[in-house]
Design brief:
Blueprint (H helix, E strand, L loop, with lengths): L14 H8 L2 H7 L14 H31 L4 H50 L2
């Protein structure tokens, strides 16, 4: 039977128990949560709010324009014409899909922002009337 080596500080904890003691999974889950609390009233800049949909719209527009160039090359270029005819519409559709998704995402964010402002206003009214 093999005896596990003792640690230099004299504690006889197994490596698994050390992992369990140092693991803070629950606190990490709470910190990394994406949902924002209604109770916090931190103001964010417009870029912080809209940066993801703006990036999606710009990438979608770039891919769409690239697809237009590839598709137009299929009309001009004689060599490898079938490759351009296959890839052009694929880039067109992918770019258009990203462009539309980003454009739809912006009004959704605006609606959420309005709902968050309303809920904060209602919460302040509740606290005003019930904390007397």
């Amino acid at each position: 039977m093999e005896i596990p080596p003792k640690s230099p500080d004299g504690s006889e904890k197994s490596p698994q128990s050390k992992e369990l003691l140092t693991s803070n999974t629950a606190s990490t889950l709470c910190i990394s949560s994406r949902s924002e609390s209604v109770w916090t009233s931190t103001s964010r800049s417009k870029w912080d709010i809209y940066h993801k949909p703006v990036i999606v719209v710009s990438v979608g527009a770039a891919i769409f324009l690239f697809g237009m160039v590839i598709t137009s090359l299929s009309c001009i270029q004689i060599k490898n014409k079938h490759v351009y005819k296959m890839c052009g519409p694929a880039f067109l559709s992918l770019g258009l899909m990203l462009l539309v998704c980003g454009l739809v995402w912006i009004p959704i964010i605006r609606k959420k922002q309005k709902q968050r402002q309303k809920s904060q206003f209602l919460q302040s009214l509740k606290s005003f009337f019930f904390n007397r």
